[in-house]
Structure formats: C-alpha cells, structure tokens
C-alpha cells in the first residue's frame, strides 16, 4: 500500500496528531481559565469535547510514534476503520461544540453587549472565549484533514 501524506504511521500524520492535541488542549485550558465560563452549557460542552479530542489525538500520536520507531504498519483494514470511526465521532463533536460556543460568543457580542461590557471592565478575561472558540475551529480543521486521509485510505484497502 502506498503511504499518503498525513496517513496513519507517517511522520506527517504524527505532526498532524500532535497539532490536534496541542490546539485542543489549548482551547480547553483557555476556556477553563476564563472567568464566567461555568455559566454557559455550550462552554462546558466545548471543554469536554476538546478534552476528548486531546485524549484521542494524544493516544494516536503515541501509536504513530511507536509505528515510526519500530517500523510497524498501521494501515491495516481494522486499524484504519478504527481511525476513521474515531475521527468521525470526534470531528462531529468538535464541530458541534465549536459552533455552539461561537453562537454564544456572537450572542454575547451583538445582542447582550457582554463583550462591550468586558472592554470596559475585564477585557483579557472575555477575549479568552473568542480565543478558545478559534482554537476549537483550528482543531476541527485538523481533525477533518485526518478523517479525510483515513477515509481515503480505508476506501482503498
């Protein structure tokens, strides 16, 4: 089987998984340190979804590292189907969490004028919501790339 860029067991796949883990962890930690994030269910969902994504990506990064170090093939039909299924589930959860949190941020910014209130009182704390949502979308783009590559490999196995 031909190796595809970003596929399981490749260096580019390892870099992609590390990027997913780092951006998901950053999004989760930024959201958890923002004051007042405990008041909104969408922000809880974003933190939980990014935590799951960070764990999934870390586990796969470890597996890819093992495969690269010991020259193992991760592109077997069973393993690739596991990667496709896991990426599909985490991609859907991450997109839903990012979109719902982005909706709350837009609601705060345009309708409630919460972010204008934050400009006067605590600008840094309120900017964390925006940063966490942006990092969640970055994470989702990386997951979508991983899913697409894994699905392409699964179709050809």
Automatic annotation (TrEMBL):
Domain named Casparian strip membrane protein: residues: 8-141
UniProt keyword annotation of Cell membrane present: yes
Superkingdom per UniProt: Eukaryota
Keywords: Cell membrane, Membrane, Transmembrane, Transmembrane helix
Subcellular location(s) of the protein: Cell membrane
Coiled-coil annotated residue ranges, if any: none
Signal peptide: none
Annotated GO CC locations: plasma membrane
Presence of the UniProt keyword Phosphoprotein in the record: no
PANTHER family on file: CASP-LIKE PROTEIN, CASP-LIKE PROTEIN 5B3
Family from the record: Belongs to the Casparian strip membrane proteins (CASP) family.
Name of this protein: CASP-like protein
Origin organism lineage: Eukaryota, Viridiplantae, Streptophyta, Embryophyta, Tracheophyta
């Amino acid at each position: 089987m031909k190796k595809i860029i970003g596929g399981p067991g490749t260096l580019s796949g390892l870099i992609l998984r590390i990027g997913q883990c780092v951006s998901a962890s950053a999004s989760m930690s930024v959201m958890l340190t923002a004051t007042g994030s405990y008041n909104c269910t969408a922000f809880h969902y974003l933190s939980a979804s990014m935590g799951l994504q960070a764990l999934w990506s870390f586990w796969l990064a470890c597996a890819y590292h093992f495969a690269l170090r010991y020259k193992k093939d991760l592109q077997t039909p069973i393993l690739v189907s596991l990667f496709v299924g896991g990426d599909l589930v985490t991609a859907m959860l991450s997109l839903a969490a990012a979109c719902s949190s982005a909706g709350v941020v837009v609601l705060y910014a345009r309708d409630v004028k919460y972010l204008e209130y934050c400009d006067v009182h605590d600008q840094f704390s309120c900017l964390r919501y925006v940063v966490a949502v942006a990092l969640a979308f970055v994470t989702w783009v990386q997951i979508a790339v991983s899913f697409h590559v894994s699905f392409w490999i699964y179709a050809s196995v």
